[in-house]
Amino acid sequence: MPEEPKKLYLLDAYALIFRAYYAFIRNPRMNSKGMNTSAVFGFTNALVDVLNNYNPSHIAVAFDPPGGSFRVQDYAEYKANRDETPEDIKRSVPYIKEIIEGFNIPVFEEPGFEADDVIGTLAHQAAKEGFEVYMVTPDKDFAQLVTDKIKMHKPAKNGGKVEIWGIDEVKEKFQVDDPLQVIDILGMWGDSADNIPGIPGVGEKTAKKFIAEYKSIEGLLEHADELKGKMKDKVKDNAAQAILSKQLATIRLDVPVKFDPEKLIIEAPDKEKLKSV
């Protein structure tokens, strides 16, 4: 018999939690004690969908640590425009962690690094060991990590379908030759969610056009004199900011975490614990 494929699923906890919370914002899920359980319900649904329908052999969940990441040291304004996390989400997180524990799934939370960096590092280590890796997240930044072994698994939203992004999907979506160029696109157009500044006046469309022509931010800066009118000034005046934005948009692959397949094997859930939660 052929060997079962080794499939590792890595869940981006807070991206899934926030998405679940806001998906029900007009019609929040409330329990009998008056607690808003939208985030708990939505996160658990995404997790159960993966377990029941995608046959992972290995699984883990990554959380952002308290206290922010190294990116704040590089750029104090990083994520500074974000609203305070809603109380209902803060209240939900301990329950979500209990549920993950009830499913016997390991949690990674590395001081100074975001979940993106932890997932990127584990995904690369696992791919080298012959695993098929799926990063479960709605966050477009992860597209830069896609390879022939690493894919994005974007959970269904508003009754739609799960989207799996491999190399071809990323190339088409971002109009790039290589998923790594997603970093340059994000660096050029910036990211309002993370407060990455980008180049003023460059949106998604212009960034894709520049990448098609110049291949990278560095390529664009080298050819800035060929640009016309105000765009030329914007690119030249914001060269340092463009390079910084590219750094901020780059997911790190050198977090001090180790992929240990033995510890991430799917286990039977602790039904008693899950019932009590």
Throw out a few tags for this protein.
277 residues, 6-stranded mixed beta sheet, 6 strands
Which radius of gyration do the C-alpha atoms yield?
20 Å
For the largest sheet, list the strands in their spatial order.
3-2-1-4-5-6
What about the largest sheet?
A: 6 strands, mixed
Question: How many strand elements?
Answer: 6
**Element-level helix/strand string:** EHHEHHEHEEEHHHHHHH
How many helix segments? 12
Q: Can you tell me the residue ranges where pLDDT is under 50 for at least 5 consecutive residues?
A: none
What characteristic shape results from the CA principal axes?
globular
Helix content: 40-55%
Query: Alpha-carbon distance between the termini?
Result: 40 Å
Q: Please state roughly what percent of the residues sit in beta strands, choosing from under 5%, 5-15%, 15-25%, 25-35%, 35-45% or over 45%.
A: 5-15%
- What would you call the structural class? alpha/beta
**Overall mean confidence score, pLDDT:** 94
Give a written overview of the molecule.
With 277 residues, the protein is α/β, with parallel strands linked by helices. Helix content is 44%, strand content 9%. Strands 3-2-1-4-5-6 form a six-stranded mixed sheet. A hairpin with an 8-residue loop joins strand 5 and strand 6 (163-165). Helix 7 (182-189) packs across helix 11 (239-249).
List the helices and strands and how they pair.
Elements: E1 7-12, H1 13-23, H2 38-53, E2 58-62, H3 70-74, H4 87-102, E3 107-108, H5 115-128, E4 132-136, E5 150-154, E6 163-165, H6 167-174, H7 182-189, H8 204-214, H9 217-222, H10 229-237, H11 239-249, H12 271-276
Parallel strand pairs: 1-2, 1-4, 2-3, 4-5
Antiparallel strand pairs: 5-6
